[in-house]
Amino acid sequence: MTLQLRALALVVLSVATPACAARPLEHVFPGPKAALPAMGVIAEDTAPKQDLRMVPPEVYMRTYMQLFGGLVPLDAQKRARGGDGGALFDTWDDYVSALGFPDYRLDVPRQTQTNALMAATFERLGVALCDRALEHDLKPPKGAEAPPLKDRLIFAFDLPAGDLDAHAFAPRFDVLHRTFLGYPAALAPAERGVRFFQLYQDIVAGHAKAAPKSRFSPREAGWAAVCYGLVRHPEFHLY
Amino acid sequence: MPAAFRLPALIATVVVASVPLALDATSAPPPATQRTLEDYRHFRIAAIDLLGRAPTRDELGAFERSDFDMDRWVESHLGGPGYVERLTRIYMDVLRLEPNLLFMNPSWQLYRHDVLGPDGKPVTIYYRENQRRERPDIDGEFCLTPDETGVVIRARQQDFAAKVDPKGKPGKPVVVLGHPVDDATPKKVAQKLLDERTVLVRPWWLYRDYKTRSPAQRYGQDEWKEPDPQYKPVETLLEDAEHHPVLEVRICREEASSGDAGHIYASGRIKAPPKGERLPGGRLRPPPLDRPYATQHQGQEVACDTRSGLDYAMDCGCGVGLERCIPGDNNNGGNAFYYPNHMPLGPGLPLDDARQSSQRWFPYWWSREAVRMLDDLFASDRDFREILTGKRTFVNGPLAQFYRSIQQSNCCGPEASFGMLQESEPLFEPKRVPEDLEPQDVSTWKVVEDRGPHAAGILTTPMFLEKYASARARGAAIYNDFLCKSFIADVQSLEPSKEPNLMVRPGCKTCHATLEPLAAYFARVEPSSFVFLPGAQFPVHSTTCKLDKNGKLNGNCNALYDPAFADAKGATLRSAYGAPEHADATPAGGARDITSSPDFGACAVQRVTSSFLGREITPDDGPLLVSLTDVFVRSGYRMKALVRVLMKSDEYRRSNNVASTTWRSGR
Questions:
Q1: Residue B245 and residue B238 in contact, taking contact as beta carbons nearer than 8 Å
Q2: pLDDT confidence bin for B614, thresholds 50/70/90
Q3: Which is it for strands B561-566 and B541-542: parallel, antiparallel or unpaired?
Q4: Are B344 and A57 an interchain contact pair (Cβ–Cβ within 8 Å)?
Q5: Hey, are the CB atoms on A175 and B656 less than 8 Å from each other?
Q6: Distance from CA of A190 to the nearest CA of B (A)
Q7: How many angstroms separate the CA atoms of B564 and B568, rounded?
Q8: Whole-number Å distance between alpha carbons of B572 and B567
């Protein structure tokens, strides 16, 4: 079989070679011989387009540390990692390139557009921040009291006893909205408050029947989820 | 929809209700004023640009007061740390002044090795590679021979067993590159021999008062209990293998020489030993032969902090308290100090703290020096042209140590044959280094108003010169970074050519007609180095260096002069052919020429405007750029004037002011 194939290949080659040799030399010109004819003229729109830009990673980090109570990075890392083996946070070194920092040593430029890895990193860091802040602000250790409002990191409001209705939710949501997005919730699109309240209610309801039990109470889990939503909101990362 | 979210009735409810809940706002409810979403967004971007972070609830509270004045707020933060970092970041992103290289020189790098002491315990001995010594069995090598220690000790390699190869000639040691021989049997070294060849020293990295006759202020101890918190030698420099504190270090005797000057030594060896002959002491490579210069200038004085001092003098060492040398904790240089790998928010906010190689020690500080220069430029609102023309810089302890002595170790190799054994016109004159900075003062920075006549802003810093190692790279950097121009070829074909002049060679000339004259400004600064070649010893056109009958330049001429631009009568200094007058103008002249160009101011405005607007500049930004450039130039090239006007412009307010409804409606 192999011999037959070789013989066939030789036949093909012997036929093809003179054909190739007979072909005229091909010239490749550096450009078109003549200008392409114009088919029409349109004005170029060079007006600056409104666009979103990513908050520089330096700003993200400074804001993050500010939200953690003005800690330095290594202390924020320690607090975010916690002592519960929750693996909420690794080390800043693990996130440096994912956050878009440039690396001058390797001439890696600054990232100016978000990407999937970056979004995942924002999520991971945001969840760590919200969970640890919630533990600090709303979930004192057994026998201790929650810190006074002035010492709370993010959840600078009290939680009324009993269920939270939309009226009670709104001003508390506004505190978080101003904290993360920099303006009152009242100036946000109307649906935002509704959606976040719905999220809060869904999480509270879901945790009430969660098995096994979450380390957060249903209400705590509800506020943590609201915090996740804002810390991952595009307006927090873009400006 | 729940009743609570019926807008706009909720606006007032939310604003009023949120204030007392956010207790970090001021205690007395301030008179609030109605702000629009656009106002809030403008405040947020201004905070991001001037504070370096999003505004806090406190700051939002202040912003909402009726007496809040945005212009005054901007003015109060111009020049603040956030603003300075913001502007420095723009130019660090452009220049990328951080090295991806190790800086190592045998003149200052101390290696160390453990030999077997008389009691069978390891004894750590520091040494320099290539140290000249009188005894032929150790000249240019470790100060104990393989015959004496049982191992061949060589810097930057593994240790090798020195034993007889049963298949080879008697006495020839077995060498397995990269792998120590398993059955190596180190020999005990007698105390008498140790004392003869080595001495004990209290070095600078352990003692604050290392310059005194009896140093007593040891790192971390009572006498020096609170060292600079950022000065952290690695544990292996502070403790021995058994975790006992190191009180003094043992070092080869020659390395411990404390004199500033030595004398050129000639051993009388001018011929290599016959091949196969057993070398003295069991050494692997023959003892160094005398160079012609050494033979001709035997006994002549030579500065010990130079490469010549190491190459030619056996009475040159590391100086008082070994202050001209940097320790490493093994035979490959090894680690020396802790400092961060990552600190994007500055050295005060490191992300880690890592054991680092001694060979990264100075590059790390060069980079910090560059950042300090930029920070000062923006914090003091100095004339921005000083980024290229300024004589001023900042040094801390390690940089003072570097500029006082370590920088000299780059010189002189091929320059020696031109009569330059020591840099005669260094870019940073050592005498200008503040005297009261010790190598351990890593957090203390002092201004040096004038580095010397050849200083030219960032261009003559080690960081720039090492990052951009060749004259062309340096020329291209200033063209791109400070004139905002790029090199773009106009033809796509490169035809074979022997034309050495790239300014006329087809296919090359489009770019090189501009690049070569720019590169010529750097012809007097050695490539991959920062040694300055003075015109007196290195004329642009040398008649001493010329092609020989074989059409070649001799070795030392070839290193500094360009054989492509040489003939039987002379040769042109490398990189100078594009514009010989630029070579003599030096980088300082280049800086003057570049900053005199109208493109310089326009380029700075373009970079800052693009960064603050967060997008590329388009042709429609032309009028804005023209007006900003006018403001910038009329202000004397002051960045504050530029940023002040830019932040008040409609373009700045509008640039990032996309209504949230347009991008994430309803969320």
A1: yes
A2: confident
A3: unpaired
A4: yes
A5: no
A6: 6
A7: 12
A8: 9
Here the ipTM equals 0.82
Q: Does B80 touch chain A (CB under 8 A)?
A: no
Q: Do A30 and B14 touch (CB under 8 A)?
A: no
B27–A contact, CB cutoff 8 A: no
- Residue among B136, B139, B141 at smallest CA distance from B125: B141
Token duo for residue B621? 């930004």
Burial of B265 (0-12, 13-18, 19+ CB in 10 A): buried
The reported pTM is 0.86
Cα separation, A230 vs B169, in Å, equals 78
Closest residue in B to A72 (Cα–Cα): B349
Q: Which residues make beta-bridge pairs with B542?
A: B571
Q: How large is the angle between the packed helices B639-648 and B81-95, nearest 10 degrees? A: 100
* Closest chain B CA to residue A180: B54
In whole angstroms, how far apart are CA B55 and each of B42, B206, B454?
Answer: 11, 45, 45
The whole-angstrom distance between A226's CA and the closest CA on chain B is 12
Q: Is B48 on the interface with A (CB under 8 A)?
A: yes
Provide DSSP, B538-550.
S-SEESSS---TT
Give bridge partners of residue B164 from the DSSP assignment: B173
Q: Are residues B603 and B483 in contact, defined by beta-carbon separation less than 8 angstroms?
A: yes
Contact B433, B404 (CB under 8 A): yes
CA distance B631 to B229: 44
Nearest chain B Cα to A49, which residue? B655
Contact A171 B493 (CB under 8 A): no
In A, which residues are within 8 Å of B17 by CB distance? 170-171, 174
Question: Is the minimum CB–CB distance between B247 and chain A shorter than 8 Å?
Answer: no
Distance CA B286, CA B585 (A): 45
Task: Give me the count of residues in chain A.
Answer: 239
Q: Which of residues 144-163 of A touch B (CB under 8 A)?
A: 149-150, 156-157
- Render pLDDT for A66-117 as a digit per residue (tens, 0 to 9): 998 888 999 889 888 887 777 788 899 899 999 999 999 899 999 888 889 9
For the packed helices B598-613 and B471-483, what is the interaxial angle rounded to 10 degrees? 70
* Residue type (1 letter), B98: E
Is B23 an interface residue toward A (CB < 8 Å)?
yes
CB A137 within 8 A of CB A146: yes
d(CA B335, CA B237): 9
Quote the CA–CA distance of B608 and B94 in Å, as a whole number: 11
- CB contact under 8 Å between B666 and A171, yes or no, is no
